[in-house]
Every structure is written in structure tokens, then in C-alpha cells.
Write a structure and sequence with these properties.
- It is a single chain.
- It is built from nine helices and eight strands.
- It is of the alpha/beta class.
- It has a single domain, classed as Alpha/Beta hydrolase fold, catalytic domain (Rossmann fold, 3-Layer(aba) Sandwich).
Length: about 300
């Protein structure tokens, strides 16, 4: 399928041909983060999606308190819980850039969403983000009642680098004896540092996320080439995926990460883990939760259906 016109319009708005990528800006990383927040604000303007309640909290982490934002749907609990890890290459983005996606998931699923503000690279390289996300998931699962949640119905999810962290936390939970997770939602996840797939070659440039940008993210998050072989950095490299929670894997056709996300889904299937993989033709990386894309609504419906089923 050709690139969707809505994707083309988005690219022309935020990353027109000839414009420098984030990795080409001669700016400190904190300033680049501010630019990204401004971009997200511009492309997702409008009335916020209403939820029952929003609360700013912290949970204990390996290097100190981890800020989280708790979205609670209208109604009375206990509700199922989704612990969410935002994308941004482990370097950029924050709770605000993914506020809309979390609101949408809260209302579509009818669950508490706990969005985790994990430590970012390069100030805090691997494995800081993974350790924070695991600590947050473990705490939320064991203290679900404090969040209006049901400890028997806890899932994890995330997009892009957050999808990577979701896969990693699922492996950590299996390897470390908990918490028990009922589902993992992987939205165009990063699963391998090799960057050598067909989708990396086909979509190397011109589709918002680029190969050079991914190299920039990896160099900040996991500067050690040896560490990139760890399954806690590249979850696709785990020797065994058996015993992981059921998964939903969403990918986009014109995304460098397409093939590694689908390869991870195939590995899960081979390991007898229940998994559903959905590719959104004509779409680019970052479309999920974006009001400019009709496909974002379909992806939200697919994600919500999978999580509702898991929570039942």
C-alpha cells in the first residue's frame, strides 16, 4: 500500500524534506527535548480527552522516587491497571507528550493507566530506564489497591522505546519471579539494536523516524556495543521467550522498526505465547494516539479490545 495521505501531510508538517532530524541539531539534548514537547503540543492541540481523575504521584525506584501520572476512569473500582511506558528513543518525550495516548487508553479500556516518567539517556544510560520501569510495574502491581486497581488484573504497555521497555519488563518479571502480568501491549516496539532489517533499508529516510535517528538514540541509551546484546536492551535476543504474558504487537508499514516488531511477535508465537500482531498499512512510526490519523482510532480499538479481553 502507498504511504497514506494523512501520513504524508504529517511528515510535510513536522519533518519536511531537507529539514534536519533531531540527531542533526547542534543543540544540547535538554533543548531538543523541549522542541519535541512543543511539536507534540502543536500536532495534538484541542480539548483534552476527559477522564475521571488524574493524579501526580511517585513510586520507589532504584535511584530514588519515580514520578508517575495516574489516570483513573469515571466510575467505581477496583479497575484493571495498565502500567504505561512512553516512547521517545529513551532520550526524549515525557508524561506530557504521551498524555493524550494515556487518556485515550484509560477511557477506551476502562482501566487505570499509570504512566511512568523513567530516567532518560544520555544522563542515565542503560539499564536505568529498564530498571525504573520494572520497579514501577512491580510497585504498582503489589500496591494496586492504592491506585484504585485490581492486583489480579495488571498489564504493561508502551510505544517505540516504551514498547522495548514493555518487552524487557515482561522478561524481567518472568526471570525475577514477578509481578504477574496478564498482558503486554507492544506498539511499534524497538526489539533489537542491529538495525539491519529490510524495513530499516526500505524506510531509512523520509518517513519521520529514520535509521540515523535510531542510531542516535541507541548511541545515547546503550553506548556500549557489548551491552546491546543483552536481552534487557534487545529483547529479541533473549534465548527463550516461553512463559511471557500474552501480547499484542502493533506495527506500521513505513516504519524502520516494522520488521523487528513482527519478528518479536513471531518469536513469541513460536514460544507458545498467545500473541496477535497487526500491521497498519500506509502508516508511519508515531501514528498511535495522534488525532491526525484515522488509523490511530483503529489501533486504539484493537489495543482496547485486546486488553479488555485480557482483563476479563
Amino acid at each position: 500500500m502507498p504511504l497514506h495521505p494523512q501520513a504524508r501531510a504529517f511528515i510535510d508538517q513536522v519533518a519536511p524534506p531537507g529539514s534536519p532530524g533531531l540527531h542533526q541539531l547542534d543543540l544540547p539534548v535538554p533543548e531538543i527535548r523541549n522542541l519535541v514537547i512543543t511539536m507534540f503540543t502543536a500536532t495534538q492541540a484541542g480539548e483534552p480527552v476527559a477522564v475521571g481523575r488524574i493524579e501526580e504521584r511517585t513510586v520507589p525506584g532504584p535511584a530514588g522516587p519515580i514520578p508517575v501520572r495516574v489516570y483513573t476512569p469515571a466510575g467505581s473500582g477496583p479497575f484493571p491497571v495498565l502500567v504505561y511506558f512512553h516512547g521517545g528513543g529513551w532520550v526524549i518525550c515525557n508524561l506530557d507528550t504521551h498524555d493524550r495516548a494515556c487518556r485515550l487508553l484509560t477511557t477506551a479500556i476502562g482501566c487505570v493507566v499509570v504512566s511512568v516518567d523513567y530516567r532518560l539517556a544520555p544522563e542515565h544510560p542503560f539499564p536505568a530506564a529498564a530498571e525504573d520501569c520494572y520497579a514501577a510495574a512491580k510497585y504498582v502491581a503489589s500496591h494496586a489497591a492504592e491506585f484504585g486497581g485490581d492486583p489480579q488484573r495488571v498489564a504493561i504497555g508502551g510505544d517505540s522505546a516504551g514498547g522495548n521497555l514493555t518487552a524487557v519488563v515482561a522478561q524481567m518479571a518472568r526471570n525475577k519471579g514477578g509481578p504477574k502480568l496478564v498482558h503486554q501491549l507492544l506498539i511499534y516496539p524497538v526489539t533489537d539494536a542491529a538495525m539491519d532489517t529490510t524495513s530499516y533499508r526500505e524506510n531509512a529516510d523520509g518517513y519521520f523516524l529514520t535509521t540515523e535517528m535510531m542510531a542516535w538514540f541507541w548511541n545515547h541509551y546503550v553506548p556500549s556495543k557489548a551491552d546491546r546484546h543483552s536481552p534487557y536492551a534487545s529483547p529479541l535476543r533473549a534465548s527463550d521467550l516461553a512463559g511471557l504474558p500474552p501480547a499484542t504487537v502493533l506495527t506500521a508499514e513505513f516504519d524502520p522498526l516494522r520488521d523487528e516488531g513482527e519478528a518479536y511477535a513471531a518469536r513469541l508465537h513460536d514460544a507458545k505465547v498467545p500473541v496477535k500482531a497487526v500491521r497498519y498499512d500506509g502508516m508511519i512510526h508515531g501514528f498511535f494516539g495522534n488525532p491526525l490519523f484515522d488509523a490511530a482510532r483503529r489501533a486504539l480499538e484493537d489495543a482496547a479490545a485486546a486488553l479488555k479481553a485480557a482483563f476479563r
